[in-house]
Design brief:
This protein has a 9-stranded mixed sheet, sandwiched between helices. The chain has helices spanning about 30-45, 70-95, 115-125, 145-155, 185-195, 200-210, 225-230; strands at about 10-15, 50-55, 100-105, 115, 130-135, 160-165, 170, 180, 185, 215, 235-239. The protein has a single domain, classed as Acetylglutamate kinase-like (Carbamate kinase). It is built from 7 helices and 11 strands.
Length: about 240
């Protein structure tokens, strides 16, 4: 018999920028397919998977180009960008024969289901991958906060945040050669040090609901599967 996963249900958080590859904008098909392959491995291991993906590869409400715009308008544009990314990821997953549903905080019945908590849980129980798009549906909230909110709502065991570095460091490891990596760190220490794990609202919501966050390198093949099977991968943020 195969090994039992360490987690029954996870919420995977990805940034929109991670889809760009070398282009720095838009969606790179090779990156999308690689992400889908990693999700497939974890799903085949028996893990129920919800996903929240950002929209920064297309439009970010807090970006420099959005500064002259009304903040609320810019944030709504960012939400629509997350829906584009979610549909692209759905397509890549379904090409691997994974039944996938996109649920949006902003209703658009022609292309996705509205987010209904009980329906989302039912999809997960039936073995479908559920992609939560449109953020929280409200301006001034990031997709990090949306990820924590959805994770709490679907009663996920953990949030796993895929990045391009190996976890949480005391300095940016892409700029500081001898940056120190944490194996574990508390929510409050993340806030106190101002570490860019997630924004403060997301960290606080995780802390209030005792929901652990694991930050790991999603670019390393097989890392997600190793993580869900209980191996020590990345950095765990908890009490």
């Amino acid at each position: 018999m195969g090994q039992t996963p360490a987690y029954k249900r996870i919420l995977l958080k990805l940034s929109g920028e991670s889809l760009t590859g070398e282009k720095k904008f838009g969606i790179e098909a090779n990156v999308l397919n690689r992400f889908a392959a990693e999700v497939e491995k974890a799903h085949r291991a028996g893990v129920q998977i919800g996903i929240v993906i950002g929209g920064g590869n297309i439009f970010r409400g807090l970006s420099e180009k959005a500064r002259e715009m009304d903040r609320v308008q810019a944030d709504y544009m960012g939400m629509l960008a997350t829906i584009i990314n979610s549909l692209a990821l759905q397509d890549a997953l379904e090409k691997r024969n994974l039944h996938t549903r996109v649920m949006t905080a902003i209703q658009m019945h022609e292309i996705a289901e509205p987010f209904i908590r009980r329906r989302a849980i039912r999809h997960l129980e039936k073995g479908r991958v559920v992609i939560f798009a449109g953020g929280t549906g409200n301006p001034y909230f990031t997709t990090d906060t949306a990820a924590v909110l959805r994770a709490v709502e679907i009663e996920a065991d953990v949030i796993v945040k895929g990045t391009r570095v190996d976890g949480v460091f005391d300095n940016d490891p892409e700029k500081v050669k001898d940056a120190l990596k944490f194996d574990e760190i508390s929510y409050m220490e993340v806030v106190r040090r101002g570490l860019k794990v997630m924004d403060t609202t997301a960290i606080t919501l995780s802390m209030d609901n005792k929901l652990p966050i694991i930050v790991f390198n999603f670019d390393k093949e097989g890392n997600l599967n190793r993580l869900v099977m209980g191996e020590s991968v990345g950095t765990k943020v908890q009490e």
